[in-house]
Specification:
Number of helices: 11
Structural class: alpha/beta
Number of strands: 13
Helix content: 25-40%
Distance between the termini: 51 Å
Strand order of the largest sheet: 1-2-3-7-8-9-12-13
Largest sheet: 8 strands, parallel
Length: 282
């Protein structure tokens, strides 16, 4: 029943738009934007658009224009402003607060109640709103939690991979973007359509509140991981999301050049992801 709901939500025109995009030999033009309002013309250059699942611009005009829209879902942590937060708190499956994002708490992804909530309520709600795809975020968290405490958090990495596979099993025609989750790629490379490398070349330092280039060894390590995933599944596309000062167009242009040379489809944004930053021209 759940799968039938989702397939009904994925309109025929949306499937066609996604198929056209996947068959295009050119890199994807894409953006991620977490706010309710944006001028329609600023969104038109992009093939793939990632929005917050509840606060976002109108979807139908973009779908009519042949775009593919992805709804954000956080699977490894939950913000207290979300409607499901109280239930997770009552179940006792929330861990410590994310030090970089006030009010957001890590989730024990092994708990079957969380899996059921995602499959039975959260994803169907995203698809009913008109989204054609899913953007899976924060699945680095269970990996890191298990690394920190392999005994108390044993099995979190496997649980994260199982959750992705469950989504693909229920909604095989719904495209999925996985944000990072590099340690999961060997298990889920054929269950996702895109992997997003976040902060591959440039990142934001929350302690100094400045944009900085990623240290070269870490940059090279991430590029190799992402390219290896592409070799494993040649149909898997890699999107790169780097953060930089939007007034420094020279560096932004360099980031685009480097990431395209890596074989990725790049986008450069501000850390708050609340504005569209166009690629520099000229």
């Amino acid at each position: 029943m759940i799968a039938s709901l989702a397939l009904g939500a994925l309109s025929a025109r949306g499937k066609q738009a996604f198929a056209r995009s996947r068959s295009d030999e050119n890199p994807y033009q894409w953006t991620v934007f977490y706010a309710e309002e944006a001028a329609f013309e600023t969104l038109l250059p992009y093939d793939l658009l990632i929005f917050d699942r509840t606060a976002h611009p109108p979807l139908e005009p973009l779908i009519d224009a042949g775009k593919t829209v992805f709804g954000y879902i956080s699977l490894g942590e939950m913000n207290r402003q979300r409607d499901v937060f109280a239930r997770l708190q009552d179940w006792g499956i929330l861990g410590e607060e994310n030090p970089n994002w006030e009010g957001s708490y890590f989730i024990d992804v092994r708990d079957t109640r969380w899996v059921a909530l995602v499959i039975e309520e959260m994803v169907p709600a995203i698809l009913r709103r008109g989204f054609q795809g899913l953007f899976l975020d924060t699945l680095d968290n269970p990996i890191e939690l298990e690394r920190r405490d392999p005994v108390a958090n044993a099995g979190m990495t496997k649980a994260a991979a199982r959750l992705i596979k469950a989504l693909k099993l229920h909604w095989p025609e719904v495209p999925i973007i996985l944000n990072r989750g590099y340690e999961l790629l060997d298990q889920v490379a054929f269950d996702i359509d895109h992997v997003l490398g976040e902060s591959v070349y440039a990142d934001y330092d929350f302690s100094t509140k400045t944009y900085q280039k990623v240290p070269d060894p870490l940059y090279r390590e991430q590029v190799e991981i992402l390219q290896q995933a592409q070799r494993k599944n040649p149909d898997l596309s890699v999107l790169s999301l780097d953060y930089w000062d939007p007034t420094d167009t020279r560096t932004i242009a360099e980031i685009y050049r480097v990431q395209r040379k890596n074989g990725f489809s790049p986008y450069v944004a501000t850390i708050d992801l609340d504005r569209i930053v166009p690629e520099p021209t000229g």
